Amino acid sequence: MESRTLAVLGALDLRRTLKPLHGRFGDDGWWRAARTPAGPGTIRITRGSDGIVGEAWGDGAGWLLDRLDAMAGLLDDPASFTTTHPIVAELHRGNPGLRFGRTALMFDSLLVAITGQKVTGREASAAMRGLYQEFSDPAPGPNARLRLPPDPARMAEAPYWVFHRLHLEKWRADLIRRVAADHERIERLAEVAPSEAATYLQRFPGIAEWTVAKTLVPSHGDVDRVEVGDFHTKHIVVYHLTGRPRGTDEEMMELLEEFRPHRGRVSRLLHTLGHEPKFGPRLTPRDITRM
Are 173 and 129 part of one and the same domain? Predict the structure, then answer.
C-alpha cells in the first residue's frame, strides 16, 4: 500500500466533488478501482485532519496517487468563475466547495456514458452490472467487494449475443465493441484538450454531444461541457433561470452562453436546486434480455 496526503486550500465538498467520478462511497471513504496505464490499481480517498488522504494498492497505485489532487478537485478553482447573475451568483456563493474532479480515465467514463444512452437509469445500471459480471476482475487491495472496470480487450472480442443477455441491445453493444477495439487510443485522449478529445470521440457513429459530455466531465473535469440531449438537464436549466417548466436544448445553451467557459459549472449548480416540475408518468424500464 502507498499513501499520499495533500493540504486543502479553500472550501471543498469532497463527497459532491467525487460523486460524478464513478467510484463507490463507503463508511471508510471513497473507493475507485481502475485499469491504469501502469496496471490495475485501487485508490481510497478520505478527508483527514491534515487534508485529503489517498491510499492505493496494486501496480497502478503510484499512477492513481499522482492524480489525487486532480480527482479530489484540488486543481479546480471555483473562484475563477464570477458572475453578476442574481440566481447563479447566489448559488455559487452558497456552494463554494462544489468542485470538478477529474480521473484521466477516458475509456471507463466513455463506457458508462454509452450504457446510459437513451435508457432509464435503472436500465443503465442493469447493463453496467452485467458488464462487470462478465468482463471484470477482482481489484487489488483490501476491499473484497471492489472489482476492476470491464476489460476492453475482452469486450472487443465478445460476440453480440453476450451483450444481449447483459441488458444491452445491438446498437449499444456494437458501439461498445467498436470503442473497446480502439481503447488504447481513446485512453490517450486524457492527455489532450477536451475539445480535441471530443472531436475524436464523435468520429464514432452513435457518439454525440450527450455521450461526449458524460465522458469528458469526469475524465477531464471539463467545467464548460453541458449535457446537450439529456432528458432532464434542459428543463432544469430553463426552469431555474426563467421559471418555465419546460425548455429545449437550444434555449438552454442560449441561457448558458453568458457563463462560458463555465457553462457546465453553472448547469451543475442549477442541478442542486432540484428537478423541474413533473408531468405525466415516468418511463417504464425495459428488459432487454426478453427482446
Answer: yes
